[in-house]
Amino acid sequence: MVDVGAFIGQIFVVVLLVVLAIFVIVVIFRSIRIIPQAYAGVVERLGRYQRTLQPGLNLLVPFVDRLRPLVDMREQVVSFPPQPVITEDNLVVSIDTVVYFQVTDARAATYEIANYLSAVEQLTTTTLRNVVGGLNLEEALTSRDNINGQLRVVLDEATGKWGLRVSRVELKAIDPPLSIQDSMEKQMRAERDRRAAILTAEGSKQSQILEAEGRRQAEILRAEGDKQAAVLRAQGEAEAIEMVFSAIHVGDPDDKLLAYQYLQTLPKIAESASSKMWIIPSEFTEALKGIGDAFGGRVAAGPRRGAGERPARESTGGKTAEEAVAAARAAASAADEIASEAMTTRTDVSPPDQR
């Protein structure tokens, strides 16, 4: 027969061993803490700060030490919702801010402030209103670096005792009222139109300057060309005159040829339409006299006078241009006739040995 007391004793021992095993497991579990990298743990012993656990394996006193929630030691980026801010010129603008901060002391972040995220948000809002409140809208839009620097200095100084380090503060957006935005767009459009008009005027000015410069250069080149052409033309005429003069001297013309050429030139002198009066020069009768003496003593202009007489100067009375031209042409015709007869006479009268 089984002893009931012994069986109950065995069951009690087994239950006791199981309870001891569970207790040991719980004690071991509560004594060992593994802290991840970039985190820190604050340990309280009997409700008082005892130490800060570093990343890795750490041992605690079970039922005496208590580990508070882990603190993230990495740099954090927090974007706060838009905050209405009144500028110096009484305009309400909505500003979004972004704060970059890092927990440097887990103990201070745990015991010096209840909620450091909410504290940073409220401090950012108040500091932003103080800074932007002293600026007008245009300065606020163009002085973001200045505003960011002032916010970072104030926040870093205020959060230092909380175990935080504020590295950067950025203004993500500054939104003025819609009416101000419309006015700014109109202003920018007018400014761009003004700049476009100025650029157009400058372009037109430069174009006119270049065109005037081109015309001036063209006129200068044309004048240079005319000058060179005139110089070359004068040189050509001088060379032609020199060649004619040389040819005349080489040919050695006599008085008969010169008198004949003189008579051929007289009609051309009187052909001008502006000539109303024409004075017969004394050389006219002298030329006729020379031709008459050369070709057998015949005179083309009338009876021959004595050697001491000056028929041309005695008849130098004024004649009309038409009469002068007619007289010159008649004299030229007579000279041609005398020349022809003289040539015929010379042909008919030949040396006796050739007849």
Terminus-to-terminus distance: 207 Å
Number of strands: 11
Q: Into which percentage range does the β-strand content fall?
A: 15-25%
The general outline is rod-shaped
Biggest sheet character: 4 strands, antiparallel
Indicate the low-confidence ranges by residue numbers: 297-319, 346-355
Structural class, from helix and strand content? Answer: alpha+beta
Q: Give the assembly state of these chains.
A: single chain
Radius of gyration: 65 Å
Polypeptide structure, described:
- This protein has 355 residues and is α+β, with helices and mostly antiparallel strands.
- 58% of the residues lie in helices and 19% in strands.
- It has ten helices and eleven strands.
- Strands 2, 3, 5 and 6 form a four-stranded antiparallel beta sheet that branches.
- A hairpin with a 2-residue loop joins strand 2 and strand 3.
- 15% of the residues are buried.
Topology readout:
Layout: H1 4-31, E1 32-35, E2 39-45, E3 48-53, E4 56-59, E5 65-67, E6 71-72, E7 75-86, E8 92-103, H2 106-111, H3 116-132, H4 137-142, H5 144-159, E9 164-175, H6 178-251, H7 255-269, E10 277-278, H8 282-294, H9 311-314, E11 319-320, H10 321-348
Antiparallel strand pairs: 1-4, 2-3, 2-5, 2-6, 7-8, 8-9, 10-11
Salient structural properties:
355 residues, 4-stranded antiparallel beta sheet
Summarize the structure.
The protein is of the alpha+beta class and 355 residues long.
